[in-house]
Structures are given as C-alpha cells and as structure tokens.
Amino acid sequence: MYMDQNKIPKATAKRLPLYYRFLNSLHLQGKTRVSSKELSESVKVDSATIRRDFSYFGALGKKGYGYNVEYLLNFFRKTLDQDEITKVALIGVGNLGTAFLHYNFTKNNNTKIEMAFDTDPGKVDHNIGGVPVYHIDDLEKYIGNVSAAILTVPAHAAQAITDRLVECGIAGILNFTPARIAVPSNIRVHHIDLAIELQSLVYFLKHY
Amino acid sequence: MYMDQNKIPKATAKRLPLYYRFLNSLHLQGKTRVSSKELSESVKVDSATIRRDFSYFGALGKKGYGYNVEYLLNFFRKTLDQDEITKVALIGVGNLGTAFLHYNFTKNNNTKIEMAFDTDPGKVDHNIGGVPVYHIDDLEKYIGNVSAAILTVPAHAAQAITDRLVECGIAGILNFTPARIAVPSNIRVHHIDLAIELQSLVYFLKHY
DNA sequence: TGTGAAAGTATCATATCGTAACAATTCAAG
DNA sequence: CTTGAATTGTTACGATATGATACTTTCACA
C-alpha cells in the first residue's frame, strides 16, 4: 500500500479520481466496455493522455477492444484505496463548510467527514448532514486518528488552527482560506482560493 | 487593454492575483519595499520564479533594493484591470453559492457578483449579501452584459443552464459542479470539483 | 566612495502535456 | 478460418513550466 509506483506523475494522480467517478457512472449505466476515445469525450482529457495515464499501472485494456469497465473499476478501487475509508474533519461550519457537510462524499469516495468543529453555539452539539459538530476548543479531545482536515474558517484563524491540527498529527489539509499557511514539510497542503479562481478566470477572459 | 502581452505564460497569469493580493496586504501594513525573497516566503513561490514573472512586464524593481510596494501595486492594478470591474452572475444559491455571496470580493478584486439566480421561492426576490436573487426562469431577462458566471447548481442541471448562459453571450464559467460541461471553444471554463480535490489530497497522503 | 544586496537575465535539467504516429493485438464479420 | 477494422500500448517530439544556479548590473546606504 505504501508505494512502489511513486513514479506516477502528480498530474496523472489528480486525474485518477475523475476517471474513477466516471467509470462508476458507466458501470451503473450497465456499460461493460469503454474506449479511451469515449472516456476522452466525457472527462475532457486527451485520449492519448488517458491511455498513458492508465499504462502507468500496466496493461489494463485490450488492444482493438478497449477497457472492460468492471475490471478497470475494480482495479482503481484497489489502487485508490476505495475500500479503506479515510477520516476527515471539517473545521469551520460556515456556508462553505456546510456545503461540504451536505455533499454526499461517501457515495463515490474513499473519504468520510467524521466530525466538524465551530465556535457558534447555534451549531455546536448539533448534527449537520449527519455529521456531529463540536466546539473548536475540544478539537484535541475528539479528533482522534483523523488524517485530513478541510479548513473553511476565516483567514485570520487559519494559522492558529493549522498549528493545532499539526500538533494533533494531521497528515493533510485542504485549505480554503485565502491565508497561506505554514506547516512542517511532512504535511501536505492543497490550497484552493475561491477569490483567486474567479479573478484568474476573469484575467484569462480579458487577455487571451 | 486587449493584449499585446499575450506572451505571458498561463502559469504566470494564474499567480498574478496572488501577488496582487499579497502586495495589497503589505501596503495596508505600511510596508514600502519588498524583495523577491520576502515575497517568496509569503506566497510560497520560488523567488527566481517571482522575479521572472515580474520581468515579463518589464523592469518593475530596482536592483539592490527590491520592489516599491506602492509602485508595484499600482502597476498590477492597471495590468489586472482592477479599476474596470467585471460583472459576474451566480447561478445556484445553495450553501456553496451563499458562501460566494457573503465573500467580499470587491475588497481586493476586479469582480463583482451583480446578481444571483435560483429556483427556491424562499430565496427568489430576496437580497443575500447585498446581491439580488432572481428566478432562474428570468435569466435571460436580467443577465444583461454580465461576462462571467459562477455555476453552483446540482450537477444534473449544469449542462442545460450552461447552454442558456452561452446563448446569453457569457464569456467564462467557473464550474463547481461535478459535471463536465460542453461549451463552444470561444468560451472559457474553469472547473473546480470539490470532491476530487479532497480525493486527490487523500491519494497524495497515501502514495507520496 | 565603496560595498553589499538584490534585480534582471541566462542557462540547464527535469516534468508534464498534447499531438502524432505506429506496431501489435483483438474482436467481429463473413 | 481469414481478413479487416478498431483500439491499445508505446514511442517520439515540441511546447511549456519549474526550480536551481549563477552571473552581471545597478542601486542604496553607510
């Protein structure tokens, strides 16, 4: 489980969940085979790129035939550890945080939001989307062996909470705050900045 | 305004809003100068990359001194068209959509969410975060010369609404639905898939 | 006036991407 | 059984981006 295929490009790794989800829906539709060309049209990734992505894992398809949906799906299930659910905590139950809580992640995913934290007494000790909300002061008490955190708190609180998460042994953080947080090098942070995404889109509209 | 500097790499263009915002906060702190090295530590981008990014726009700094924060800020304000506000519409006032409405974009940004659309009678004709919410049926009536749309609707509605937006002459779409939407080639789509972001983070945790 | 700091620029190695091409292989039709 | 069409797996190539390193130039400041 802890890798030999380290050679897989990051860009490929990012596409794997996308492939998986689409294969899943094909499977539900009852399709048994699919070609890289069909996949390409659906997920909007070049067909040669798809074939190369797949080939990092060996020969998964059959020439002149395509890929067997079920076989491919099973393969990805294992590779993406779809069976082994990763526990996630959500920090900050504002609008964005609530959106996550209502998102049904477990449907196609190997992740589960186990708990959420906030300071708002109107939210603490409630259940939102089936997830218990605790007070942020009790972070250390409840977090247990959660391995990743979604950070949807106000920017000014980001670093302080990050430090506490790190102290609790968190392995990864999905940071939605505009703040650039500092962490030890062994902790992985993915940063998604909604304002920048919008501004960047606008820049491209005007200049390209 | 409509480009001669088309040579700027996309990767650089994506970093510009980030630079801008950070310079802005430096300015508010009263700092008058900054070096590429300082910037590098704050925005987590290699200092040489920053210097190269800046140099696409000419000589903005002074050797042996650094960059004048105010000068640089003014320059970016012009380059990023910070003065000329781009109108944006938000489609789908769920949790995620509401998060956008409460986000104070105009503070550091050249974009303004002018209106929102939804089907929920409890939201239509209300103001949320100072933004008027109209019924999605009236999209064509109100949208006017809005140039970009934020799509935060259920996945199954994504393509139909996209088609209508395209018909209305929208130039860009920020797509937060899991659906991969099809658009004419002259329309720019940036796709952010929250589930995939989370799953991708988890994959990296396990395999790298 | 001298010196140190930092920009601007160039170069190199590495990674990724899209595109194209091609041989090998397989299915399916006849 | 044979043939042909389809599609993979793989390779090659050019374009783009990145991080590193290093060099020269120029400016600020002591």
UniProtKB/TrEMBL annotation, chains A, B:
Statement: the UniProt record of this protein carries the keyword DNA-binding: yes
Gene Ontology CC terms: cytoplasm
Residues covered by the CoA-binding domain: 81-180
Gene3D superfamilies: NAD(P)-binding Rossmann-like Domain (3.40.50.720), Winged helix-like DNA-binding domain superfamily/Winged helix DNA-binding domain (1.10.10.10)
GO BP: negative regulation of DNA-templated transcription; response to redox state
Regions recorded as binding DNA: 18-57
Annotated NAD(+) binding sites: G92, V93, G94, N95, L96, G97
UniProt keywords, alphabetically: Cytoplasm, DNA-binding, NAD, Repressor, Transcription, Transcription regulation
InterPro entries: CoA-bd, NAD(P)-bd_dom_sf, Rex_bacilli-type, Rex_DNA-bd_C_dom, Tscrpt_rep_Rex, WH-like_DNA-bd_sf, WH_DNA-bd_sf
Primary location class: cytoplasm
Molecular function (Gene Ontology), one example: DNA-binding transcription factor activity
Location in or out of the cell: Cytoplasm
Top-level taxon of the source organism: Bacteria
Function: Modulates transcription in response to changes in cellular NADH/NAD(+) redox state.
Complex and partners: Homodimer.
Family: Belongs to the transcriptional regulatory Rex family.
Protein name: Redox-sensing transcriptional repressor Rex
